[in-house]
Design goal:
CATH architecture: Sandwich
Pfam family, one: Fimbrial
Number of strands: 10
Helix content: 10-25%
Shape: flat
Largest sheet: 5 strands, antiparallel
CATH class: Mainly Beta
Radius of gyration: 28 Å
CATH topology: Immunoglobulin-like
GO biological process, one term: cell adhesion involved in single-species biofilm formation
Structural class: alpha+beta
Keywords: Signal
Protein name: Fimbrial protein
CATH superfamily: Fimbrial-type adhesion domain
Oligomer: single chain
């Protein structure tokens, strides 16, 4: 091989090393954290339903002080996926056939109206009422009506509303939290 060809080859290889370093410049990076839980249930809980945020809107104090003393209902849902309702045996464990689920809601009760979830925000005289899939009013700690399940995805729709507690109503923020537990049957 001639010296010219050797020199050209060396220059080409050296240039390609610099070019690849130029493209490898740090243009931003980060981390992705994956979390989840393996549960003993016939259905998986969809990622959008493990932490549910419900915007109750801006409720006029007059709504809570007169008339029905509660706001309009706001719907939300618990989405289930991959439901397999058949009886199965895996090793020494038998999974029974299940076709229904009920949902039990927990949380901190309001001091004046124990059937409502307490508001930890700055508004006074207001709590959150939970309503089951059939429209029945729930108290903190109650289970909603049984819901029939189908194989595959299921959506269980509930509602909530801001409701007067009986204490004087004052303006401010509404912040409340509930937990839920699924009870398969």
């Amino acid at each position: 091989m001639s010296n010219f060809k050797k020199s050209t080859l060396v220059i080409a290889l050296a240039s390609s090393a610099f070019i690849s370093q130029a493209f490898a410049a740090d243009e931003g990076n980060g981390r992705i954290h994956f979390t989840g839980t393996v549960i003993n249930a016939p259905c998986s809980i969809a990622p959008n339903s493990t932490d549910i945020n419900v915007d109750m809107g801006q409720v006029a104090n007059k709504v809570l002080e007169t008339g029905n003393k509660y706001s309009q209902n706001v719907q939300y849902s618990i989405d289930l996926q991959d439901c397999d309702l058949t009886e199965q045996t895996a090793g020494s464990v038998t999974y029974p056939a299940q076709s229904k689920v009920s949902v039990t809601f927990g949380g901190i009760s309001d001091a004046t109206a124990s059937e409502l979830l307490a508001n930890t925000g700055s508004a006074g005289g207001a709590g959150i009422r939970l309503i089951d899939t059939n429209g029945a009013l729930l108290k903190v700690g109650d289970s909603g009506a049984d819901v029939n399940l189908v194989t595959g995805p299921n959506q269980i729709v509930f509602a909530a509303r801001v409701e007067a507690t009986g204490a004087p109503v004052t303006t401010g923020t509404i912040v409340s939290q509930a937990t839920y537990a699924l009870n398969y049957k």
